[in-house]
Specification:
By secondary structure, this protein is of the alpha/beta class. Helix content is about 45%, strand content about 15%.
Length: about 450
């Protein structure tokens, strides 16, 4: 069954909502309606619309406030403002702020359909495709968070161009998976995807690996080698950890980006290549430029479009989804017996800090699945795997209790157990201060010399 574009309609006039919905459904659009800005925001993340049409004047969250909120969730979704004649100047100003366009009431059915079609065409909808076909390009990325949805929307738009992409993000966030997704959504998808880790290949071999060499060009070159650029011809070359590339190879890479041709080691003849370059790094390249370890001109060539993968602690709503997916894949490989996390175990996963990001989460789940002797993965299977990194977020009451206890201990250490002096420093009377000490089970005499 063909997948329909998703349209979110927002207006506090229910009769108009019903009319517009019928018009859009007549063209096989999948339509959700909301009678307020608040309801629209609640619907947005779950429905994931391709286009939003909203009335400008509404009680509570009006059209412009809704637009701003949607832009914070996903900048790639076009918003069309619907307005009365009296507020046209506001709508015109809204288009300057990034609103896709505006329609004036009363809206003709043809004008409504034309504007929606234009918004979908400009932003690259997926009409006529099944849901599976729509998401096939990104199927390796498991996510339901708004921050990832916005990133993937931008990645899809960028993929349809020939722009060079730089993917930033901490180690373990999935930079290669995003590069593969961009490749699958691009015109190079039928060509090869060749990943290269710039730190995994010795510096003496990296130039030959990338650009190739001719027979006899150096000791050990017993035959000619095409190199990874030629292997990736009509496809994508993914240069991971680009920040660690030696300076003399950066010069050659810059020339390839400028001339679209390579020169193998030992050859005087250039070889044309048609390759999409995607690079990635966890390093601060601007700082590397200041330290003269990375070329500024190459940075600008690589950083035409920058996509930054968020660390796992900024997309906590994805943790249950990722953990269950990993458990499903791992148990299928192990014995096929389905394994589920107890609520307490899942809470531990959500509260952990995850400095190693998605890669660390996978390792923890893999460890738990290997040790689980029943269908349930309990919290005790997770403690050992993540305790060295876990930094639990405390409830406010517990954080206050811990601070107060440490504060009192510090006071008594400073005054060597003198309660009167400690009470004066705390600006509390002795009676109240003793009550505080009793509440925290602190014995002042233990702090005397």
């Amino acid at each position: 069954m063909a997948r329909s574009y998703r349209i979110l309609l927002v207006d506090d006039e229910t009769d108009l909502l019903r009319l517009w919905k019928l018009r859009l459904q007549s063209k096989n659009y999948d339509v959700a309606v909301a009678a307020s800005g608040e309801e629209a925001l609640a619907t947005f993340s779950a429905f994931k619309p391709d286009v939003v049409l909203t009335d400008l004047r509404m009680p509570g969250i009006d059209g412009l406030a809704l637009f701003e909120a949607i832009r914070n969730l996903n900048k790639s979704v076009p918003v069309i403002i619907i307005t009365a004649h009296g507020s046209i100047p506001e709508a015109v100003e809204a288009t300057r702020q990034g609103v896709f366009s505006f329609l004036t009431k009363p809206i003709e059915g043809s004008a409504l359909l034309k504007e929606v079609a234009k918004a979908i065409e400009v932003t690259g909808g997926w009409g006529g495709e099944t849901a599976e076909e729509r998401d096939e390009w990104r199927q390796g990325i498991i996510s339901q968070s708004a921050i990832m949805e916005e990133l993937l929307s931008r990645a899809k738009l960028v993929a349809e161009t020939d722009a060079t992409v730089l993917i930033r993000g901490e180690s373990g966030t999935g930079k290669e998976l995003l590069a593969i997704a961009i490749h699958k959504a691009s015109r190079y998808k039928d060509g090869p995807f060749i990943p290269v880790n710039c730190t995994a290949i010795p510096e003496t071999l990296l130039e030959s690996e990338l650009f190739g060499h001719v027979k006899g060009s150096f000791t050990g070159a017993v035959k000619s080698y095409a190199g990874l650029f030629q292997s990736a011809d009509n496809g994508t070359l993914f240069l991971d950890e680009i920040g660690d590339m030696p300076l003399h190879i950066q010069v050659k890479l810059l020339r390839v980006l400028q001339d679209r041709q390579i020169r193998p080691v030992g050859s005087s003849q250039p070889v044309p290549v048609n390759v999409r370059i995607i690079s990635a790094t966890h390093k601060n390249l601007e700082e590397a430029i200041r330290e003269n370890t990375f070329r500024e001109d190459l940075f600008y060539r690589l950083n035409v479009v920058s996509l930054e993968l968020p660390p796992l602690h900024r997309r906590k709503e994805d943790i249950p989804l990722l953990a269950e997916h990993f458990a499903s894949v791992l148990t299928e490989k192990k014995d096929g017996q389905e394994k589920r996390f107890t609520p307490e175990a899942m809470q531990i996963l959500v509260e952990a800090e995850w400095p190693g990001n998605v890669r660390q989460l996978f390792n923890v789940v893999e460890n738990a699945v290997a040790l689980a002797t029943s269908p349930l993965i309990t919290e005790d299977l997770l403690y050992d795997a993540i305790k060295q990194h876990q930094k639990k977020i405390l409830p406010l009451s517990e954080a206050k209790r811990q601070f107060e206890q440490q504060y009192l201990i510090q006071l008594l250490q400073t005054t060597q157990g003198n309660v009167s002096q400690a009470a004066r420093l705390a600006q509390r009377n002795r009676t109240d201060f003793y009550k505080l000490l009793n509440r925290h089970h602190i014995v002042p005499s233990l702090y005397k010399d």
